[in-house]
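Format notes (please read before filing issues)

Several people have asked whether sequences and structure tokens are stored in separate files. They are not. Every record keeps both together, in the order shown below: the sequence lines, then the token lines. Line labels are part of the format and must not be stripped during preprocessing.
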Amino acid sequence: MIAVATGSDAFLGATASALPRRLASAGSLWVLAVAVYGVGDLASTLVGLQLGATESNPIPAALIELSPGFLAVVVVLSLWKAATMAAFALVAWRLPSPYAAAVPAGLCLIGVTVVGWNASVILSVAS
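Then the structure lines:
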């Protein structure tokens, strides 16, 4: 079914009644949060570490120092990222429904910021 979008939501390609349902669906926000905050940050951190950059977050930095090799660093950072994502999911689960979507949305913003920061560090280390 094709609908003509009217009003201020026309630029989003959705009808005015469909937009709140899309925004209320936090599932896609969690997928994006895992992709950007989880995978994007982890991957860009690992690339940076391979190029000689250092981790600025004190807890993962300490875990990296304790890890005997790069494979151990990958495992430890993956477990750290999974634990933080689980903690954020627990916070979201405890929040009332309209506010729970703020958690993955915030993780998306943090993830984009951190991946951008990591990219700038990678570019400065690589050059």
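For reference, the curators noted about this record: Confidence is low (pLDDT under 50) at residues 1-14. The CA atoms of residues 30 and 104 lie 5 Å apart.
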